Amino acid sequence: MPIRKTAAPPLQRGLACLSCRKRKLKCDGKKPVCSSCLKMKRPEECEYEDRRQKSRTQKLKEKLMKLEDRIRELEGPAEGSSSGASSSSAASSPAVSLGGPFFPELDSVDPSMFDMERAAFPVWANNSGSPSSSSGSLSVPVSRSVTCSPFAQSMENSFDANSSLGHIFGLPGYSPIPEVPSQSWDLSAPLSDEQRRLLLEIFLAHRHQCWFDNDLTRFQLFADPESARPEPHPALMNAIFLLACHFGRGPHFSEMESQFLSKTLHEITVALDNSDRLVDVVQASCLLAIYLYANCRTLEAYCHSFSAARLAVGLGLHQIQLNDLEPSSSASSSKSTAPIAIAKPRTPAELRDRIAAFWQVFMVDRCWSVANGLPVALPDGEHHQGRIKTPWPEAAPELHGMLPGMSLNSESGQPVYLPSLKAKAAALYERTFRLASAAHQTDAYWNEHRSTSIALQRFNATLPFFVGFEGYKTQAPYVDVELLSIHTIANVCTIHLQRSSLEMETIQSANYIMSLIRQLNPADYEFLDPLLSACWTCVAKFYIQMLTNTAFDANTPLPAYAVEQELHLLVVAMRSLGEYFPLANEHAKKIEDERAMLLGFT
User: Fold this and answer.
1) Is residue 205 part of a domain?
2) Is 492 within a domain?
3) Rg of the Cα trace of the chain?
4) Which residues, in sequence order, are bridge partners of residue 343?
5) Whole domain around residue 550: which residue ranges?
6) How far apart are the C-alpha atoms of 547 and 545, rounded to whole Å?
Protein backbone atom coordinates (compact mmCIF):
# COMPACT_ATOMS: atom_id res chain seq x y z
CA MET A 1 0.00 0.00 0.00
CA PRO A 2 1.23 3.57 -0.62
CA ILE A 3 3.25 5.20 2.11
CA ARG A 4 1.30 7.94 3.83
CA LYS A 5 2.94 10.88 5.49
CA THR A 6 1.45 11.02 8.96
CA ALA A 7 1.45 14.11 11.10
CA ALA A 8 3.65 14.26 14.14
CA PRO A 9 1.87 13.05 17.28
CA PRO A 10 0.40 15.87 19.39
CA LEU A 11 2.58 17.24 22.16
CA GLN A 12 1.73 16.02 25.64
CA ARG A 13 -0.06 18.46 27.94
CA GLY A 14 2.25 20.94 29.64
CA LEU A 15 5.27 20.37 27.37
CA ALA A 16 4.76 23.42 25.10
CA CYS A 17 6.85 26.52 25.74
CA LEU A 18 5.27 29.34 27.74
CA SER A 19 5.30 31.73 24.76
CA CYS A 20 3.33 29.38 22.49
CA ARG A 21 1.01 28.49 25.34
CA LYS A 22 0.25 32.16 25.93
CA ARG A 23 -0.43 32.84 22.24
CA LYS A 24 -2.36 29.56 21.68
CA LEU A 25 0.13 28.50 19.00
CA LYS A 26 1.18 25.00 18.01
CA CYS A 27 4.52 24.13 19.61
CA ASP A 28 6.84 21.25 18.74
CA GLY A 29 8.60 21.38 22.12
CA LYS A 30 12.11 21.60 20.68
CA LYS A 31 14.75 22.90 23.05
CA PRO A 32 16.31 25.34 23.66
CA VAL A 33 14.06 27.20 21.16
CA CYS A 34 10.97 25.75 19.49
CA SER A 35 10.28 26.11 15.77
CA SER A 36 7.38 28.56 16.27
CA CYS A 37 9.50 31.00 18.28
CA LEU A 38 12.32 30.75 15.72
CA LYS A 39 9.89 31.42 12.90
CA MET A 40 8.39 34.44 14.70
CA LYS A 41 11.90 35.72 15.56
CA ARG A 42 11.43 35.78 19.31
CA PRO A 43 13.87 33.15 20.62
CA GLU A 44 14.42 35.17 23.79
CA GLU A 45 10.76 34.58 24.78
CA CYS A 46 10.93 30.80 24.34
CA GLU A 47 10.96 29.46 27.89
CA TYR A 48 9.85 26.13 29.27
CA GLU A 49 8.14 25.47 32.56
CA ASP A 50 10.38 23.88 35.16
CA ARG A 51 8.69 20.50 35.66
CA ARG A 52 11.05 19.24 38.30
CA GLN A 53 9.35 18.01 41.40
CA LYS A 54 9.50 20.35 44.35
CA SER A 55 10.41 19.01 47.73
CA ARG A 56 7.59 17.88 50.01
CA THR A 57 8.43 20.62 52.48
CA GLN A 58 8.33 23.31 49.79
CA LYS A 59 4.95 22.12 48.53
CA LEU A 60 3.60 22.11 52.07
CA LYS A 61 4.82 25.64 52.71
CA GLU A 62 3.25 26.93 49.50
CA LYS A 63 -0.06 25.29 50.28
CA LEU A 64 -0.04 26.65 53.82
CA MET A 65 0.58 30.17 52.52
CA LYS A 66 -2.38 29.85 50.16
CA LEU A 67 -4.47 28.45 52.98
CA GLU A 68 -3.66 31.33 55.32
CA ASP A 69 -4.47 33.86 52.60
CA ARG A 70 -7.77 32.14 51.88
CA ILE A 71 -8.75 31.96 55.55
CA ARG A 72 -7.98 35.66 55.98
CA GLU A 73 -10.07 36.41 52.93
CA LEU A 74 -13.03 34.42 54.24
CA GLU A 75 -12.85 35.74 57.80
CA GLY A 76 -12.22 39.35 56.80
CA PRO A 77 -14.85 41.87 55.62
CA ALA A 78 -16.25 41.43 52.14
CA GLU A 79 -15.01 44.86 51.00
CA GLY A 80 -12.02 46.96 51.88
CA SER A 81 -8.43 45.87 52.30
CA SER A 82 -7.03 48.30 54.83
CA SER A 83 -4.06 47.34 56.92
CA GLY A 84 -6.27 47.32 59.99
CA ALA A 85 -8.59 44.78 58.47
CA SER A 86 -5.67 42.71 57.33
CA SER A 87 -4.07 42.67 60.73
CA SER A 88 -7.37 41.85 62.39
CA SER A 89 -7.94 39.01 60.00
CA ALA A 90 -4.44 37.77 60.47
CA ALA A 91 -4.83 37.84 64.22
CA SER A 92 -7.98 35.76 64.05
CA SER A 93 -6.41 33.25 61.67
CA PRO A 94 -4.93 30.11 63.17
CA ALA A 95 -1.17 29.98 63.30
CA VAL A 96 0.14 27.05 61.32
CA SER A 97 3.52 25.62 62.17
CA LEU A 98 5.66 23.15 60.30
CA GLY A 99 7.02 21.80 63.53
CA GLY A 100 4.08 19.72 64.63
CA PRO A 101 0.49 18.70 63.97
CA PHE A 102 -1.73 21.62 63.05
CA PHE A 103 -5.19 20.06 62.73
CA PRO A 104 -6.48 21.13 66.18
CA GLU A 105 -5.63 24.77 65.47
CA LEU A 106 -8.02 24.83 62.52
CA ASP A 107 -11.09 23.81 64.47
CA SER A 108 -12.46 27.32 64.16
CA VAL A 109 -12.78 26.97 60.39
CA ASP A 110 -16.27 26.06 59.22
CA PRO A 111 -16.15 22.31 58.48
CA SER A 112 -19.08 22.56 56.07
CA MET A 113 -16.96 24.85 53.93
CA PHE A 114 -13.64 23.03 54.06
CA ASP A 115 -14.74 19.44 54.82
CA MET A 116 -12.09 19.14 57.51
CA GLU A 117 -13.10 15.59 58.45
CA ARG A 118 -11.14 14.17 55.55
CA ALA A 119 -8.06 16.24 56.28
CA ALA A 120 -6.68 13.77 58.80
CA PHE A 121 -6.62 10.88 56.38
CA PRO A 122 -3.13 10.01 55.12
CA VAL A 123 -1.90 11.73 51.97
CA TRP A 124 -1.15 8.44 50.25
CA ALA A 125 -4.78 7.44 50.48
CA ASN A 126 -5.44 10.04 47.78
CA ASN A 127 -3.23 8.35 45.23
CA SER A 128 -6.02 7.93 42.74
CA GLY A 129 -6.34 11.65 42.67
CA SER A 130 -10.06 11.96 42.96
CA PRO A 131 -11.64 13.62 46.00
CA SER A 132 -14.45 12.06 47.89
CA SER A 133 -17.93 12.64 46.67
CA SER A 134 -19.06 13.43 50.18
CA SER A 135 -18.31 17.12 50.22
CA GLY A 136 -20.14 18.54 53.18
CA SER A 137 -22.53 21.27 52.07
CA LEU A 138 -21.25 21.44 48.50
CA SER A 139 -24.19 20.95 46.16
CA VAL A 140 -22.03 19.57 43.32
CA PRO A 141 -19.87 16.50 44.04
CA VAL A 142 -16.24 17.53 43.79
CA SER A 143 -15.32 14.49 41.73
CA ARG A 144 -17.88 15.34 39.07
CA SER A 145 -17.38 19.06 38.67
CA VAL A 146 -14.61 20.56 36.59
CA THR A 147 -15.46 24.11 37.52
CA CYS A 148 -15.81 23.80 41.29
CA SER A 149 -13.37 25.59 43.54
CA PRO A 150 -9.91 24.05 43.47
CA PHE A 151 -9.33 25.43 46.94
CA ALA A 152 -11.91 23.16 48.54
CA GLN A 153 -10.33 20.22 46.77
CA SER A 154 -6.73 21.09 47.51
CA MET A 155 -7.52 21.26 51.23
CA GLU A 156 -7.60 17.45 51.25
CA ASN A 157 -4.04 17.33 50.03
CA SER A 158 -2.80 20.14 52.27
CA PHE A 159 -3.53 19.08 55.81
CA ASP A 160 -2.60 15.44 55.74
CA ALA A 161 1.00 15.85 54.61
CA ASN A 162 2.05 16.48 58.20
CA SER A 163 0.51 13.46 59.77
CA SER A 164 0.42 10.70 57.19
CA LEU A 165 3.57 8.98 58.32
CA GLY A 166 3.49 10.07 61.93
CA HIS A 167 -0.09 9.00 62.54
CA ILE A 168 -0.13 5.79 60.53
CA PHE A 169 3.43 4.55 60.96
CA GLY A 170 3.93 5.60 64.56
CA LEU A 171 6.41 8.43 63.99
CA PRO A 172 5.12 11.51 65.84
CA GLY A 173 5.21 15.00 64.37
CA TYR A 174 6.30 16.12 60.96
CA SER A 175 9.07 14.16 59.37
CA PRO A 176 9.96 14.55 55.70
CA ILE A 177 10.18 11.45 53.55
CA PRO A 178 13.75 10.15 53.81
CA GLU A 179 15.93 10.56 50.76
CA VAL A 180 16.31 7.72 48.27
CA PRO A 181 19.15 5.55 49.62
CA SER A 182 22.57 6.43 48.25
CA GLN A 183 23.66 2.82 48.66
CA SER A 184 22.02 -0.57 49.01
CA TRP A 185 20.83 -1.57 52.46
CA ASP A 186 22.20 -4.55 54.32
CA LEU A 187 19.17 -6.83 54.20
CA SER A 188 20.83 -9.47 56.35
CA ALA A 189 19.91 -7.27 59.32
CA PRO A 190 16.35 -6.16 60.20
CA LEU A 191 15.23 -2.97 58.46
CA SER A 192 15.32 0.18 60.54
CA ASP A 193 12.14 2.15 61.20
CA GLU A 194 13.22 4.79 58.68
CA GLN A 195 13.80 2.17 56.00
CA ARG A 196 10.46 0.48 56.66
CA ARG A 197 8.73 3.85 56.67
CA LEU A 198 10.23 4.78 53.30
CA LEU A 199 9.25 1.49 51.68
CA LEU A 200 5.73 1.61 53.12
CA GLU A 201 5.28 5.18 51.93
CA ILE A 202 6.32 4.23 48.40
CA PHE A 203 4.08 1.17 48.28
CA LEU A 204 1.03 2.87 49.70
CA ALA A 205 1.29 5.59 47.06
CA HIS A 206 0.96 2.81 44.45
CA ARG A 207 -1.25 0.30 46.25
CA HIS A 208 -4.17 0.92 43.88
CA GLN A 209 -2.03 -0.60 41.10
CA CYS A 210 -1.84 -3.81 43.16
CA TRP A 211 -5.56 -3.82 44.09
CA PHE A 212 -4.55 -3.65 47.75
CA ASP A 213 -7.43 -2.16 49.76
CA ASN A 214 -6.74 -3.31 53.31
CA ASP A 215 -7.01 -1.44 56.58
CA LEU A 216 -3.83 0.64 56.64
CA THR A 217 -3.65 1.14 60.40
CA ARG A 218 -2.51 -2.47 60.72
CA PHE A 219 0.81 -1.49 59.13
CA GLN A 220 1.88 0.93 61.84
CA LEU A 221 5.54 0.73 62.81
CA PHE A 222 4.61 0.60 66.46
CA ALA A 223 1.60 -1.65 66.79
CA ASP A 224 -0.84 -1.21 69.65
CA PRO A 225 0.00 -3.98 72.16
CA GLU A 226 -3.69 -4.14 73.11
CA SER A 227 -4.77 -4.69 69.51
CA ALA A 228 -6.68 -7.92 68.90
CA ARG A 229 -5.02 -8.37 65.52
CA PRO A 230 -1.54 -9.81 64.98
CA GLU A 231 0.99 -7.84 62.99
CA PRO A 232 1.24 -8.65 59.27
CA HIS A 233 3.18 -11.78 58.41
CA PRO A 234 6.75 -11.23 57.12
CA ALA A 235 5.67 -12.79 53.82
CA LEU A 236 3.21 -9.95 53.25
CA MET A 237 5.63 -7.28 54.45
CA ASN A 238 8.41 -8.54 52.18
CA ALA A 239 6.02 -8.64 49.22
CA ILE A 240 5.12 -5.02 49.98
CA PHE A 241 8.81 -4.08 50.21
CA LEU A 242 9.46 -5.90 46.92
CA LEU A 243 6.88 -3.82 45.09
CA ALA A 244 8.09 -0.67 46.85
CA CYS A 245 11.55 -1.29 45.40
CA HIS A 246 9.99 -1.80 41.97
CA PHE A 247 8.06 1.46 42.17
CA GLY A 248 11.02 3.28 43.75
CA ARG A 249 12.95 2.92 40.47
CA GLY A 250 16.28 3.97 41.96
CA PRO A 251 19.38 1.92 41.10
CA HIS A 252 19.78 0.75 44.69
CA PHE A 253 16.11 -0.14 44.88
CA SER A 254 16.54 -2.30 41.78
CA GLU A 255 19.47 -4.09 43.39
CA MET A 256 17.33 -4.95 46.42
CA GLU A 257 14.41 -6.35 44.41
CA SER A 258 15.98 -9.78 44.03
CA GLN A 259 16.70 -9.95 47.76
CA PHE A 260 13.14 -9.06 48.74
CA LEU A 261 11.86 -11.53 46.13
CA SER A 262 13.88 -14.32 47.75
CA LYS A 263 12.71 -13.28 51.22
CA THR A 264 9.07 -13.26 50.09
CA LEU A 265 9.30 -16.75 48.61
CA HIS A 266 11.01 -18.06 51.74
CA GLU A 267 8.48 -16.50 54.13
CA ILE A 268 5.54 -17.86 52.11
CA THR A 269 6.98 -21.35 52.47
CA VAL A 270 7.54 -20.86 56.21
CA ALA A 271 3.99 -19.56 56.70
CA LEU A 272 2.48 -22.51 54.84
CA ASP A 273 4.57 -24.98 56.82
CA ASN A 274 3.33 -23.47 60.09
CA SER A 275 -0.21 -22.55 58.96
CA ASP A 276 0.58 -19.05 60.18
CA ARG A 277 -1.57 -16.04 59.18
CA LEU A 278 -2.67 -17.70 55.97
CA VAL A 279 -4.82 -14.78 54.83
CA ASP A 280 -1.63 -12.71 54.72
CA VAL A 281 -0.05 -15.46 52.63
CA VAL A 282 -2.91 -15.18 50.14
CA GLN A 283 -2.28 -11.46 49.73
CA ALA A 284 1.49 -11.89 49.62
CA SER A 285 1.06 -14.37 46.77
CA CYS A 286 -1.23 -11.92 44.96
CA LEU A 287 1.30 -9.10 45.24
CA LEU A 288 4.05 -11.44 44.11
CA ALA A 289 1.97 -12.52 41.09
CA ILE A 290 1.33 -8.91 40.05
CA TYR A 291 5.05 -8.14 40.31
CA LEU A 292 5.94 -11.15 38.18
CA TYR A 293 3.22 -10.52 35.58
CA ALA A 294 4.34 -6.90 35.17
CA ASN A 295 7.92 -8.08 34.67
CA CYS A 296 7.06 -10.61 31.93
CA ARG A 297 7.51 -13.67 34.16
CA THR A 298 4.13 -15.09 33.23
CA LEU A 299 4.46 -18.75 34.23
CA GLU A 300 5.87 -17.94 37.66
CA ALA A 301 3.17 -15.33 38.17
CA TYR A 302 0.42 -17.74 37.15
CA CYS A 303 1.68 -20.35 39.62
CA HIS A 304 1.49 -17.88 42.52
CA SER A 305 -1.86 -16.50 41.37
CA PHE A 306 -3.27 -20.02 41.06
CA SER A 307 -1.91 -20.98 44.50
CA ALA A 308 -3.40 -17.85 46.07
CA ALA A 309 -6.80 -18.57 44.53
CA ARG A 310 -6.90 -22.20 45.64
CA LEU A 311 -5.71 -21.29 49.14
CA ALA A 312 -8.39 -18.59 49.35
CA VAL A 313 -11.05 -21.17 48.51
CA GLY A 314 -9.57 -23.58 51.05
CA LEU A 315 -9.81 -20.88 53.71
CA GLY A 316 -13.41 -20.13 52.77
CA LEU A 317 -12.68 -16.54 51.75
CA HIS A 318 -15.04 -16.93 48.77
CA GLN A 319 -18.03 -17.51 51.05
CA ILE A 320 -17.59 -14.89 53.76
CA GLN A 321 -20.78 -13.70 55.44
CA LEU A 322 -21.17 -10.34 57.16
CA ASN A 323 -22.14 -12.14 60.39
CA ASP A 324 -18.94 -14.21 60.42
CA LEU A 325 -17.42 -12.33 63.36
CA GLU A 326 -16.17 -14.46 66.25
CA PRO A 327 -19.11 -14.93 68.64
CA SER A 328 -18.85 -13.58 72.15
CA SER A 329 -20.42 -16.74 73.53
CA SER A 330 -17.93 -19.49 74.24
CA ALA A 331 -20.59 -22.05 73.36
CA SER A 332 -20.40 -21.12 69.70
CA SER A 333 -17.61 -22.28 67.49
CA SER A 334 -14.84 -19.75 66.86
CA LYS A 335 -13.50 -21.76 63.91
CA SER A 336 -14.71 -21.51 60.34
CA THR A 337 -16.20 -24.54 58.60
CA ALA A 338 -13.91 -24.21 55.56
CA PRO A 339 -11.63 -27.12 54.53
CA ILE A 340 -8.68 -25.26 56.07
CA ALA A 341 -10.10 -24.04 59.37
CA ILE A 342 -8.91 -20.66 60.64
CA ALA A 343 -10.17 -18.49 63.47
CA LYS A 344 -13.13 -16.31 62.65
CA PRO A 345 -12.42 -12.57 62.36
CA ARG A 346 -12.51 -10.85 65.74
CA THR A 347 -13.22 -7.30 64.62
CA PRO A 348 -15.16 -5.66 61.78
CA ALA A 349 -11.83 -4.37 60.43
CA GLU A 350 -10.44 -7.90 60.20
CA LEU A 351 -13.63 -9.06 58.49
CA ARG A 352 -13.33 -6.25 55.91
CA ASP A 353 -9.69 -7.18 55.34
CA ARG A 354 -10.65 -10.77 54.57
CA ILE A 355 -13.27 -9.54 52.12
CA ALA A 356 -10.66 -7.26 50.54
CA ALA A 357 -8.19 -10.16 50.38
CA PHE A 358 -10.66 -12.34 48.51
CA TRP A 359 -11.54 -9.68 45.95
CA GLN A 360 -7.85 -8.99 45.41
CA VAL A 361 -7.39 -12.70 44.62
CA PHE A 362 -10.45 -12.60 42.40
CA MET A 363 -9.19 -9.62 40.37
CA VAL A 364 -5.68 -11.01 39.98
CA ASP A 365 -7.04 -14.39 38.90
CA ARG A 366 -9.72 -13.10 36.53
CA CYS A 367 -7.85 -10.19 34.94
CA TRP A 368 -4.34 -11.53 34.58
CA SER A 369 -5.48 -15.00 33.50
CA VAL A 370 -7.56 -13.40 30.73
CA ALA A 371 -4.72 -11.05 29.77
CA ASN A 372 -2.45 -14.06 29.22
CA GLY A 373 -5.02 -16.46 27.78
CA LEU A 374 -4.83 -18.81 30.76
CA PRO A 375 -7.69 -20.62 32.56
CA VAL A 376 -8.96 -19.03 35.76
CA ALA A 377 -8.42 -20.76 39.08
CA LEU A 378 -11.42 -19.56 41.08
CA PRO A 379 -14.60 -21.56 40.47
CA ASP A 380 -17.96 -19.84 40.34
CA GLY A 381 -21.32 -21.54 40.19
CA GLU A 382 -20.09 -25.03 39.37
CA HIS A 383 -21.03 -26.36 42.82
CA HIS A 384 -22.51 -24.82 45.94
CA GLN A 385 -19.17 -25.26 47.73
CA GLY A 386 -17.38 -23.29 45.03
CA ARG A 387 -20.01 -20.61 44.50
CA ILE A 388 -18.84 -17.10 45.37
CA LYS A 389 -20.94 -15.63 48.19
CA THR A 390 -18.55 -13.04 49.64
CA PRO A 391 -20.13 -9.56 49.56
CA TRP A 392 -18.64 -6.82 47.43
CA PRO A 393 -16.03 -4.72 49.24
CA GLU A 394 -17.34 -1.74 51.17
CA ALA A 395 -15.72 1.16 53.00
CA ALA A 396 -15.66 1.07 56.79
CA PRO A 397 -18.77 2.83 58.15
CA GLU A 398 -16.64 5.23 60.16
CA LEU A 399 -14.72 6.19 56.99
CA HIS A 400 -17.69 6.95 54.75
CA GLY A 401 -17.03 10.34 53.19
CA MET A 402 -13.42 10.34 54.44
CA LEU A 403 -11.73 8.31 51.68
CA PRO A 404 -10.61 10.71 48.95
CA GLY A 405 -10.53 8.98 45.59
CA MET A 406 -12.25 5.81 46.82
CA SER A 407 -15.85 7.01 47.32
CA LEU A 408 -17.46 8.77 44.37
CA ASN A 409 -20.93 9.37 42.99
CA SER A 410 -22.39 7.47 40.04
CA GLU A 411 -24.20 9.13 37.12
CA SER A 412 -27.42 8.81 39.10
CA GLY A 413 -25.86 10.53 42.11
CA GLN A 414 -25.62 7.39 44.23
CA PRO A 415 -22.37 6.91 46.19
CA VAL A 416 -20.12 4.13 44.93
CA TYR A 417 -16.92 2.56 46.26
CA LEU A 418 -14.08 2.22 43.75
CA PRO A 419 -12.73 -1.16 45.00
CA SER A 420 -16.21 -2.58 44.50
CA LEU A 421 -16.38 -1.18 40.96
CA LYS A 422 -12.96 -2.67 40.19
CA ALA A 423 -14.08 -6.12 41.33
CA LYS A 424 -17.26 -5.94 39.23
CA ALA A 425 -15.25 -4.74 36.22
CA ALA A 426 -12.91 -7.72 36.65
CA ALA A 427 -15.86 -10.12 36.68
CA LEU A 428 -17.26 -8.64 33.46
CA TYR A 429 -13.80 -8.57 31.87
CA GLU A 430 -13.41 -12.34 32.28
CA ARG A 431 -17.00 -13.13 31.38
CA THR A 432 -16.98 -11.12 28.14
CA PHE A 433 -13.59 -12.52 27.13
CA ARG A 434 -14.88 -16.06 27.66
CA LEU A 435 -17.82 -15.31 25.38
CA ALA A 436 -15.54 -13.76 22.76
CA SER A 437 -13.38 -16.90 22.81
CA ALA A 438 -16.25 -19.39 22.56
CA ALA A 439 -15.80 -21.89 19.75
CA HIS A 440 -19.52 -22.65 19.28
CA GLN A 441 -22.38 -20.17 19.45
CA THR A 442 -25.26 -22.27 20.71
CA ASP A 443 -28.56 -21.12 22.21
CA ALA A 444 -26.95 -21.26 25.65
CA TYR A 445 -24.17 -19.02 24.35
CA TRP A 446 -26.60 -16.37 23.11
CA ASN A 447 -28.57 -16.49 26.35
CA GLU A 448 -25.39 -15.81 28.31
CA HIS A 449 -24.35 -13.18 25.76
CA ARG A 450 -27.65 -11.38 26.25
CA SER A 451 -27.51 -11.50 30.04
CA THR A 452 -23.88 -10.33 30.04
CA SER A 453 -24.73 -7.43 27.75
CA ILE A 454 -27.50 -6.35 30.12
CA ALA A 455 -25.18 -6.67 33.12
CA LEU A 456 -22.57 -4.54 31.34
CA GLN A 457 -25.14 -1.85 30.56
CA ARG A 458 -26.22 -1.75 34.19
CA PHE A 459 -22.60 -1.58 35.34
CA ASN A 460 -21.84 1.31 32.99
CA ALA A 461 -24.83 3.17 34.42
CA THR A 462 -23.24 3.04 37.89
CA LEU A 463 -19.86 4.46 36.82
CA PRO A 464 -18.91 7.95 38.00
CA PHE A 465 -18.15 10.44 35.24
CA PHE A 466 -14.46 10.70 34.32
CA VAL A 467 -13.57 14.41 34.40
CA GLY A 468 -10.05 14.02 33.02
CA PHE A 469 -7.25 16.42 33.90
CA GLU A 470 -7.64 17.90 37.39
CA GLY A 471 -5.77 21.18 37.27
CA TYR A 472 -5.80 21.82 41.01
CA LYS A 473 -3.32 19.02 41.63
CA THR A 474 0.30 19.90 42.28
CA GLN A 475 1.79 16.47 41.65
CA ALA A 476 1.06 13.34 39.67
CA PRO A 477 -1.23 11.64 39.04
CA TYR A 478 -3.16 14.51 37.45
CA VAL A 479 -6.16 12.33 36.58
CA ASP A 480 -8.15 9.78 38.56
CA VAL A 481 -6.11 6.76 37.46
CA GLU A 482 -8.35 4.23 39.20
CA LEU A 483 -11.49 5.52 37.53
CA LEU A 484 -9.63 5.66 34.20
CA SER A 485 -8.78 1.96 34.58
CA ILE A 486 -12.37 1.04 35.38
CA HIS A 487 -13.72 2.97 32.37
CA THR A 488 -11.09 1.34 30.16
CA ILE A 489 -11.96 -2.19 31.30
CA ALA A 490 -15.69 -1.52 30.87
CA ASN A 491 -15.18 -0.39 27.27
CA VAL A 492 -12.90 -3.34 26.54
CA CYS A 493 -15.79 -5.55 27.68
CA THR A 494 -17.94 -3.97 24.96
CA ILE A 495 -15.22 -4.74 22.39
CA HIS A 496 -15.13 -8.35 23.62
CA LEU A 497 -18.87 -8.76 23.11
CA GLN A 498 -18.79 -7.34 19.56
CA ARG A 499 -15.31 -8.47 18.51
CA SER A 500 -16.42 -10.16 15.28
CA SER A 501 -18.23 -7.11 13.92
CA LEU A 502 -17.58 -3.45 13.21
CA GLU A 503 -20.62 -2.19 15.08
CA MET A 504 -20.76 1.52 15.87
CA GLU A 505 -20.94 0.73 19.60
CA THR A 506 -17.64 -1.14 19.40
CA ILE A 507 -15.93 1.65 17.47
CA GLN A 508 -17.20 4.19 19.99
CA SER A 509 -15.80 2.12 22.88
CA ALA A 510 -12.39 1.94 21.21
CA ASN A 511 -12.44 5.66 20.48
CA TYR A 512 -13.42 6.43 24.08
CA ILE A 513 -10.42 4.48 25.35
CA MET A 514 -8.24 6.52 22.99
CA SER A 515 -9.73 9.72 24.42
CA LEU A 516 -8.72 8.54 27.90
CA ILE A 517 -5.15 7.97 26.73
CA ARG A 518 -5.01 11.48 25.25
CA GLN A 519 -5.83 12.96 28.64
CA LEU A 520 -2.80 11.37 30.30
CA ASN A 521 0.16 13.46 31.36
CA PRO A 522 3.61 11.81 31.01
CA ALA A 523 3.89 11.79 34.81
CA ASP A 524 0.62 9.84 35.12
CA TYR A 525 2.00 6.66 33.56
CA GLU A 526 3.90 5.77 36.73
CA PHE A 527 0.58 5.40 38.56
CA LEU A 528 -1.35 3.44 35.92
CA ASP A 529 -2.53 -0.12 36.43
CA PRO A 530 -0.20 -2.44 34.48
CA LEU A 531 -3.30 -4.32 33.29
CA LEU A 532 -4.03 -1.33 31.03
CA SER A 533 -1.33 -2.60 28.71
CA ALA A 534 -3.40 -5.72 28.03
CA CYS A 535 -6.52 -3.58 27.56
CA TRP A 536 -4.75 -1.33 25.07
CA THR A 537 -3.55 -4.44 23.24
CA CYS A 538 -7.18 -5.49 22.81
CA VAL A 539 -8.00 -2.08 21.31
CA ALA A 540 -4.97 -2.25 19.01
CA LYS A 541 -6.01 -5.67 17.72
CA PHE A 542 -9.49 -4.32 17.05
CA TYR A 543 -8.04 -1.48 14.99
CA ILE A 544 -5.86 -3.92 13.06
CA GLN A 545 -8.99 -5.98 12.41
CA MET A 546 -10.64 -2.85 11.03
CA LEU A 547 -7.74 -2.23 8.63
CA THR A 548 -7.67 -5.79 7.36
CA ASN A 549 -11.43 -6.36 7.19
CA THR A 550 -12.74 -6.67 3.64
CA ALA A 551 -15.80 -4.67 4.66
CA PHE A 552 -13.62 -1.69 5.53
CA ASP A 553 -14.62 0.98 3.00
CA ALA A 554 -15.65 4.59 2.71
CA ASN A 555 -18.76 3.94 4.79
CA THR A 556 -16.68 3.05 7.85
CA PRO A 557 -16.77 5.95 10.36
CA LEU A 558 -12.96 6.00 10.74
CA PRO A 559 -10.80 6.36 7.61
CA ALA A 560 -7.75 4.15 7.29
CA TYR A 561 -5.25 6.91 8.02
CA ALA A 562 -7.09 7.78 11.26
CA VAL A 563 -6.98 4.16 12.39
CA GLU A 564 -3.24 4.04 11.68
CA GLN A 565 -2.75 7.17 13.78
CA GLU A 566 -4.66 5.55 16.64
CA LEU A 567 -2.44 2.49 16.38
CA HIS A 568 0.63 4.71 16.54
CA LEU A 569 -0.71 6.46 19.65
CA LEU A 570 -1.41 3.11 21.32
CA VAL A 571 2.15 1.94 20.73
CA VAL A 572 3.50 5.24 22.08
CA ALA A 573 1.32 4.88 25.20
CA MET A 574 2.52 1.30 25.72
CA ARG A 575 6.13 2.42 25.40
CA SER A 576 5.50 5.11 28.01
CA LEU A 577 3.93 2.56 30.35
CA GLY A 578 6.80 0.21 29.54
CA GLU A 579 9.19 2.55 31.33
CA TYR A 580 7.58 1.30 34.56
CA PHE A 581 6.30 -2.16 33.58
CA PRO A 582 8.37 -4.21 31.08
CA LEU A 583 5.23 -6.12 30.09
CA ALA A 584 3.93 -3.05 28.25
CA ASN A 585 7.04 -2.96 26.06
CA GLU A 586 6.43 -6.59 25.14
CA HIS A 587 2.85 -5.78 24.19
CA ALA A 588 3.98 -2.81 22.10
CA LYS A 589 6.46 -4.97 20.20
CA LYS A 590 3.82 -7.63 19.50
CA ILE A 591 1.39 -5.02 18.17
CA GLU A 592 4.04 -3.52 15.91
CA ASP A 593 4.96 -6.98 14.59
CA GLU A 594 1.33 -8.01 14.09
CA ARG A 595 0.51 -4.76 12.32
CA ALA A 596 3.48 -5.15 10.02
CA MET A 597 2.59 -8.76 9.22
CA LEU A 598 -1.14 -8.25 8.63
CA LEU A 599 -0.71 -5.08 6.58
CA GLY A 600 2.07 -6.56 4.49
CA PHE A 601 4.86 -4.26 5.70
CA THR A 602 8.43 -5.46 5.37
Assistant:
1) no
2) yes
3) 26
4) 335
5) 410-602
6) 5
